């Protein structure tokens, strides 16, 4: 599951590029029923990347109607399964970062149940979000000092919330963090001593700690 960033090929991560280059084929979502890529932004990014970095890969169109229906996600998963009948490694691409309102997790949830081995062998590659890019474009921070920022889907109802807790003090007691969902502690991610625990650690040991209370 490869995050492509917000549309600028220079904001595709090296890891994403390597994944695309080492995949046997690339699954690209399209909203067009005829499997054409006339309206597909992901297709534009992938083809621009192939041109810029001199590689080509077979492309598998994945019809993605955005109706938020289980059968549509199942169809997309089935396209991925049939891709694996022919190829050993596949990339499925998504805009921005896969963690933010992306189809990726609807598909992975299905794959987790139907094909646990494929799920275990899968990887999600993080990307630059649209709002990180928006902030950079106008040189305004999303949060600084004592501020915080929220992502609010424009819907007419209450929605479940994911909360990210950052900038703790070493030695701090985490009692004040009231768990509402599924909380994890991430310490020294990608650095020496990386530690990810599927619960809230009671004390903060490292400055590079963040807690994410994932919505349920
Ligand atoms: C389905 S969400 C995907 C978000 C994406 N995964 C991300 O990390 O930004 C699509 C929404 O993201 C925002 N968005 C994504 N790309 C954008 C862009 N290039 N310009 C403005 N808004 C964008 C819009 O609010 C759009 O409705």
Fold blueprint:
Blueprint: E1 2-3, H1 14-22, E2 25-30, H2 41-52, E3 59-63, H3 70-86, E4 90-94, H4 104-114, H5 116-121, H6 130-138, E5 163-165, E6 182-187, E7 195-197, E8 209-214
Parallel strand pairs: 1-4, 2-3, 2-4
Antiparallel strand pairs: 5-8, 6-7, 6-8
Helix pairs in contact: 3-4
Bound molecules: S-adenosylmethionine.
The site of S-adenosylmethionine has 10 residues, from loops.
3D structure, described in words:
The chain is α/β, with parallel strands linked by helices and 216 residues long. The chain has two domains: 2-130, Tetrapyrrole methylase, N-terminal domain (Cobalt-precorrin-4 Transmethylase, domain 1, 3-Layer(aba) Sandwich); 152-216, no CATH class. It is 30% helix and 17% strand. The protein contains six helices and eight strands. It has helices at 14-22, 41-52, 70-86, 104-114, 116-121, 130-138; strands at 2-3, 25-30, 59-63, 90-94, 163-165, 182-187, 195-197, 209-214. It has a four-stranded parallel β-sheet, with helices on both faces. Strands 5-8-6-7 form a four-stranded antiparallel β-sheet, with no helix packed on it. Strand 6 (182-187) and strand 7 form a beta hairpin. The structure holds S-adenosylmethionine. S-adenosylmethionine binds at residues 6-7, 95-97, 100-102, 129-130.
